[in-house]
Amino acid sequence: MLAASLNRTFRVAIGSLGIALAVLALKFGAWWLTGSVALFADALESVVNVAAALAALLAVRLAAVPPDANHPYGHTKAEYISAVLEGVLIVVAALVILHEAWAVFLAPRVPQHAPLGLAVSAVATLLNFLWARMLFREGRKGRSPALLADGKHLMADVVTSIGVLLGVAGVALTGQLWLDPLLAAVTALNILWSGGRLVRDSVSGLMDEAVDAELLGRIRAAVSAHAAGAIEAHDLRTRHAGRLIFIQFHLVVPGGMTVDAAHEICDRVEAALKSEIEGAIITIHVEPEGKAKHHGVLVL
């Protein structure tokens, strides 16, 4: 099941690259038609989308490589590196946009062929919106940080694109040329904020952040319900690395229990956790009842 998920994630990453190239062509076409710096800002972010989609594709491919002697826990964290790179590219793009917006503010120019340019940009925005929704769905299903990061970036791009479209239309209707560089600057600040948030979220994965409260509750419930014969589980620790969830804890059993019996309990708990959580990697340390801490997960 995990292998099928990896293959599907890779296919989605290839699709992301194709969509990013198509949107890039459309948005640069819209800028070429109009000369609008706001549409230039929108197009420049699409350059980042292409680079990010390529990085995500390579990261997903590397993350699918099985564990080896040098990487016994696998290569799944490669996806976090891709997400950090995407965040950095967003920040660079924002700074370039701000520079161009300031230049146009000092020397305003009238957008040309605005209706046609806006129509082309609207098609590109619709493509991004539909693909972002698909990336969210597939990213959550496959627990892929690279796809989720790409989806967040595209959805932020959609929001800014809609603002740009409305603003450039306003410039064409009112003749207020200062709106064009202002919209470009607002677009840059928005993607700067989204890039910073993306880097922060990705760094949390690289720093072995624990799973969220909801998933932790499911883990505790599964251990409690399927460890009959044991006394308690304590020192439960979790971390996520891409689509893998690492779970480890100490399982306290009666002192007179045989190794075979304790191992049977561990097998039962592992099976329950893997059924509940795809991609779970579980380590259980068995201890005698004298090691009980009387806190953690009590066995039902």
UniProtKB/TrEMBL annotation:
<comment type="similarity">
    <text>Belongs to the cation diffusion facilitator (CDF) transporter (TC 2.A.4) family.</text>
</comment>
<feature type="transmembrane region" description="Helical">
    <location>
        <begin position="46"/>
        <end position="64"/>
    </location>
</feature>
<protein>
    <submittedName>
        <fullName>Cation diffusion facilitator family transporter</fullName>
    </submittedName>
</protein>
<dbReference type="InterPro" id="IPR002524">
    <property type="entry name" value="Cation_efflux"/>
</dbReference>
<dbReference type="InterPro" id="IPR058533">
    <property type="entry name" value="Cation_efflux_TM"/>
</dbReference>
<dbReference type="InterPro" id="IPR036837">
    <property type="entry name" value="Cation_efflux_CTD_sf"/>
</dbReference>
<feature type="domain" description="Cation efflux protein cytoplasmic">
    <location>
        <begin position="212"/>
        <end position="289"/>
    </location>
</feature>
<dbReference type="Pfam" id="PF01545">
    <property type="entry name" value="Cation_efflux"/>
</dbReference>
<dbReference type="InterPro" id="IPR027470">
    <property type="entry name" value="Cation_efflux_CTD"/>
</dbReference>
<feature type="domain" description="Cation efflux protein transmembrane">
    <location>
        <begin position="16"/>
        <end position="207"/>
    </location>
</feature>
<feature type="transmembrane region" description="Helical">
    <location>
        <begin position="12"/>
        <end position="34"/>
    </location>
</feature>
<feature type="transmembrane region" description="Helical">
    <location>
        <begin position="154"/>
        <end position="175"/>
    </location>
</feature>
<dbReference type="Pfam" id="PF16916">
    <property type="entry name" value="ZT_dimer"/>
</dbReference>
<feature type="transmembrane region" description="Helical">
    <location>
        <begin position="113"/>
        <end position="133"/>
    </location>
</feature>
<keyword id="KW-1133">Transmembrane helix</keyword>
<dbReference type="InterPro" id="IPR050291">
    <property type="entry name" value="CDF_Transporter"/>
</dbReference>
<feature type="transmembrane region" description="Helical">
    <location>
        <begin position="84"/>
        <end position="107"/>
    </location>
</feature>
<keyword id="KW-0813">Transport</keyword>
<dbReference type="InterPro" id="IPR027469">
    <property type="entry name" value="Cation_efflux_TMD_sf"/>
</dbReference>
<keyword id="KW-0472">Membrane</keyword>
<keyword id="KW-0812">Transmembrane</keyword>
